Amino acid sequence: MLYQITNGTVAFGDKVVLDAINFEVRNTEKIAVIGRNGCGKSTLLNLILGEIPLTRSDGDGASIAKTGGVTIGCLKQMTFDDEHVTLAEEIKKVFQPILAMKARMETLLAAIEKDAKDSDVAEYSALEERFTYLGGYRYEKDYELIVKRFGFTPEDEKKQLTEFSGGQRTKIAFVKLLLSKPDILLLDEPTNHLDISTIGWLEGYLKEYPRAVILVSHDRMFLDRVADVVYEIERGHMKRYPGNYTNFMARKREDYDKQLKAYEAQQKEIARLMELVERFKNTPTKVAMTRSKLKAIEHMEKIEKPESFDDRAFFSSLVPEKESGNDVLQVQNLVVGYDKPLAKVNFEQKKGQKIAIIGGNGLGKSTFLKTLVSVIKKHSGTFSFGYNVEIGYFDQQMARYESDKSVIDEFWDEYPTMTETQVRNILGGFLFRGDDVFKNVNNLSGGEKVRLALAKIFEARPNFLLLDEPTNHMDIVGKEALESLLKNYEGTVLFVSHDRYFVREIADALLVFTEEGAMYYPFDYTEYERNYGSGEKAKTGDDALRLHAPSADEAEEKKGKPDAAKNYNNPGKERAKRERRIAKLEELIEAGEERLAALNDELVANATDYGKLAEIQKEIDQINAQNDAYMEEWEKLSEEE
Fold this sequence. Notes:
Elements: E1 3-12, E2 15-25, E3 30-34, H1 41-48, E4 63-66, E5 72-74, H2 87-91, H3 96-114, H4 118-133, H5 139-149, H6 154-157, H7 166-180, E6 184-188, H8 196-208, E7 212-216, H9 220-226, E8 229-234, E9 237-242, H10 245-280, H11 287-299, E10 327-337, E11 341-350, E12 354-359, H12 365-372, E13 380-385, E14 391-394, H13 407-412, H14 420-428, H15 446-459, E15 464-468, H16 476-488, E16 492-496, H17 500-506, E17 509-514, E18 517-521, H18 525-532, E19 545-547, H19 552-558, H20 571-605, H21 610-639
Parallel strand pairs: 3-7, 3-8, 5-6, 6-7, 12-16, 12-17, 14-15, 15-16
Antiparallel strand pairs: 1-2, 1-4, 8-9, 10-11, 10-13, 17-18, 18-19
């Protein structure tokens, strides 16, 4: 055990933020702390860092214990003392303890060679062990690897800190934190400011990190791939779950269902006993029986009714006012950028398609959307919208917009013909309830501003949504609510996102921006990741159309020549791809049938174990549903032969 909070309570005045919490960090655990915005996650981190005190109440034995000498590192603690040093000089400051140890070890080694005193040998041995633990023999390679992975070039290493943007400076602090290798690494939203490639690398780095990590993040895929323990904070209380985020959700639902069933069964039994008591309480010969029933109820260990999931999130129905034509968007040789071209884009979007735009920072994703809505001018090429297309555009800057109006006036001015009741009902659907509607827009959090902007956009009922990072500033429940809304949306969606879980849930095709250009993939994120990996640069292939911003030489060379045929429309390649998928589906169906046969045998073997029978039947139902889906896809593809 490295760190432990026992029966801890944190309160600010009369407001209890965390109540009777028990939290511990063991060995090299990777711990995720999750919960709604404002639930107390940051409070917990500040408590661990020693920045706020633990509230001791009623002599309840609240305490904090930690292993002697344990080091705790957090991103917000990484500061720059001198803004005029270079990136390399600043980052290498974290190696000062290692370098000091190295110098002392060299001095001791020289002394031992002359006269091997026991005290010198013991000191050298202890130093060498600590030196190895801190990565002293590989710190230079670690530096080169991490600096490169965070996107810094050898030229960047020579620049002064003053030359870097806020996001880049955050990355520099992050690099310093990772290289300092604390015993407990605290990371608050570590994937912010990172592109998908860097996030993929960071997942692997943290998973193999030989010490403990505590994560606060709304990136569910990141939590799935890094965490092996989840602590949830809900309504001021904390509970520990083994496993990653997906395991946590399954376990939480299972625990809720079990407790609810047990509670309902007990309530039913109490009602049955009370009915007997009421029926026979005035019958002299039944007095003893009624007393025994009352005692039975009294001595029952009462099961609490489980609290419902804390799933309060915005809700709305998004039904387009008009139906668009089948061709929603056509983009041909569209070159986007500001002072210079960033990318050249070619693709078509049909009605109902949900296409995600992903890729590294600064490669033109948001610029592309801004070009489509005429916020910035195109460099060259064309784009056109189809019949009856009505656009709803969300800009990520809406999370920062300013207004002196109240929330209700900001919305009402957009839709002045509505009644106050209608306005308040709509805002209530986006969690602006009661006096919340009178908040000044300038005082709203980023997440609240996003919800207000989405409420205004959705009420216009567009049939084509252009969304630029809509989940930024949202907590997990908010993201899941938006996912549900977009899944059921009958219109068309083109959206930019770094949230891979969100992309995986929504998108049926991808437009991937890389330094080499923009590429269209007519399949979902799961298939993309299977073929190209989550953290690697996308490669061109049979299913991708590679497009790039043309150089002057390329433009001259291609002048007057027709565009190359699109690879993904090649009939021969499409047929081969279809045949591979059919073969794969047949394998999956056969494997499912084999598993079903084994499960049916287990049903017979566990005929009296009702809990086990329920688990087996649940898996049987899941496999049957999955096989039905596979068969449906197999039949559809076979008909295309």
